[in-house]
Design goal:
The protein has 20 helices and ten strands. By secondary structure, it is of the alpha/beta class. The protein is globular and about 80 Å long. Belongs to the fatty acid desaturase type 1 family.
Length: about 475
């Protein structure tokens, strides 16, 4: 009986203590509320007005932030912010940034809150899954796969150089060219990953990996890659905002390009003239041959950015120095071949092999849903899933696809190391099924078929002479009737 009384007394004492704490907290809350300025709200319509380069407001968790003056410092570039300006960007912010990025937000807070801010059931489930992945420490960098890949690249590259320098066999020389093309693909995966997250824990070492795998070894500026790729991720499959769909005069994936829409990425009109119509009309035949030389476009884009006076490029001199390294070792290696015939074949072979990667980039998006205009922050999950395509393959083929086989998962969780993408694929598939969204996943062969079908459909529409474009003598010569 005494024990029971003592127990009841202890319970009562704890309850009294809690009540006292509650009273204190309640008093403090009232005091802070009395001293804090009243919360001000703005409507979605008012927020939408702040969508210009010198006036960019975004909403994150219902709070309004002015990123106008900070946009030029944004590591991902100004365009992603401009693409989402004037709307809620919570899901995109959570997808691309670690928790530490939230520490920058208070200094950008306008003091306003979004009126009637709500979160859709899909966004709630997406954020729950994101929290689950974060709690499982899957976002933590694992340097082992990257170091293993770099070791493999260095070893095979050394063997290729030795084969060129110390053998007279044409077959050995061509095999070396193919190996170098293969290594460009593997270095491309590393460069891609390091642009999204730290492939190694140390930031300086991560930056070194970027420069070696991109600029020095592959001849592609990592600064250009990040500028281009961040815009692609934010505006996935937007015809006027996504640079990965803007390939005029060679390719179009939609007849909407026939009206010469303006690229918000390149800041110029993409003219669909007679010459473009000629090339597009046969794009389903020229797709694979052009992909063999698509690397030339990446070289050109890299130089155009690095030597542009209009765009701010972080560490521009270091980027250029890395490019110089590539344009020293590769021509020098080619010049060591015994004759011009082998030199030309060497370049063609290395470019053709790495063309496989350029095909892979296209397979994930060319056949997806497209739209015109800015992306919408309140349908982040839908846009990413409808505009992307997964490629089904066995786990032992993951090295070949470099993570692109889980493109849906990668677009939803771009900071997630590719070694974990296969783990979360079933969770993403279930989430799509729950909300009635398509989860597009086909074989590598079927992905090629869908891409060619998309190109062929646009090509046949381009041949419709009832839709006039500016006259071009080449087009008229090829397509004159009679």
């Amino acid at each position: 009986m005494r024990v029971n009384l003592e127990s009841k007394h202890a319970v009562y004492k704890r309850q009294s203590t809690r009540q006292g704490i509650s009273i204190v907290h309640s008093h403090r809350h009232r005091t802070m509320a009395e001293s804090s300025p009243p919360i001000t709200y703005i409507t979605s319509e008012e927020l939408e007005k702040h969508n210009k380069p010198d006036d960019m407001w975004i909403s994150i968790h219902g709070k309004i932030y002015d990123v106008s003056q900070w946009a030029h410092k944004h590591p991902g570039g100004q365009l992603p912010l401009l693409s989402l300006a004037g709307q809620d960007a919570t899901d995109a912010f959570l997808a691309f940034h670690p928790k530490s990025a939230a520490n920058r937000l208070p200094s950008l807070f306008t003091g306003h809150h979004l009126h009637n801010y709500t979160v859709s059931p899909l966004s709630q489930d997406y954020r729950t899954l994101l929290h689950h992945i974060n709690s499982s420490n899957l976002f933590n960098p694992n340097p082992f796969p990257t170091l293993l890949s770099l070791s493999l690249i260095f070893s095979l590259f050394s063997l290729s150089v030795l084969a060129v320098l110390f053998t007279q066999s044409t077959f050995a020389h061509m095999a070396s060219a193919a190996v170098i093309g293969f290594l460009w693909i593997q270095s491309g995966w590393i460069g891609h990953d390091s642009g999204h997250y730290k492939v190694v824990p140390n930031p300086r070492f991560n930056r070194l990996v970027q420069l070696i795998s991109g600029n020095c070894f592959a001849g592609i500026s990592i600064a250009w890659w990040k500028w281009n790729h961040n815009a692609h991720h934010i505006a996935c499959n937007s015809l006027d905002f996504d640079p990965d769909l803007q390939h005029l005069p060679f390719f179009v994936v939609s007849s909407k390009f026939f009206s010469s829409i303006t690229s918000c990425f390149y800041q110029r009109k993409m003219k669909f003239d007679g010459f473009a119509r000629l090339l597009v009309s046969y794009q389903h035949w020229t797709f694979y041959p052009v992909m063999c030389f698509a690397r030339l476009n990446l070289f050109a884009q890299s130089f155009m950015l690095l030597f542009s006076s209009k765009r701010k490029v972080p560490n521009r001199k270091v980027e250029i120095l890395g490019m110089i390294v590539f344009w020293v070792w590769y021509p020098l290696l080619v010049s060591c071949l015994p004759n011009w015939r082998e030199r030309v074949l060497f370049v063609l072979a290395s470019f053709a092999v790495t063309g496989i990667q350029h095909v892979q980039f296209c397979l994930n998006h060319f056949s997806g849903n497209v739209y015109v205009g800015t992306p919408k922050g309140d349908d982040w999950f839908e846009r990413q899933t409808r505009g992307t395509l997964d490629v089904s393959c066995s786990s032992w083929m993951d090295w070949f696809h470099g993570g692109l086989q889980f493109q849906v998962e990668h677009h939803l969780f771009p900071r997630l190391p590719r070694c974990h993408l296969r783990k979360i694929a079933p969770l993403v598939r279930d989430l799509c099924r729950k909300h009635g969204l398509p989860y597009n996943c086909v074989s590598f062969w079927k992905a090629n078929v869908l891409t060619i079908q998309t190109l062929r459909e646009a090509a046949l529409q381009a041949r419709d002479v009832s839709k006039p474009v500016p006259k071009n003598l080449v087009w008229e010569a090829v397509n004159t009737h009679g």
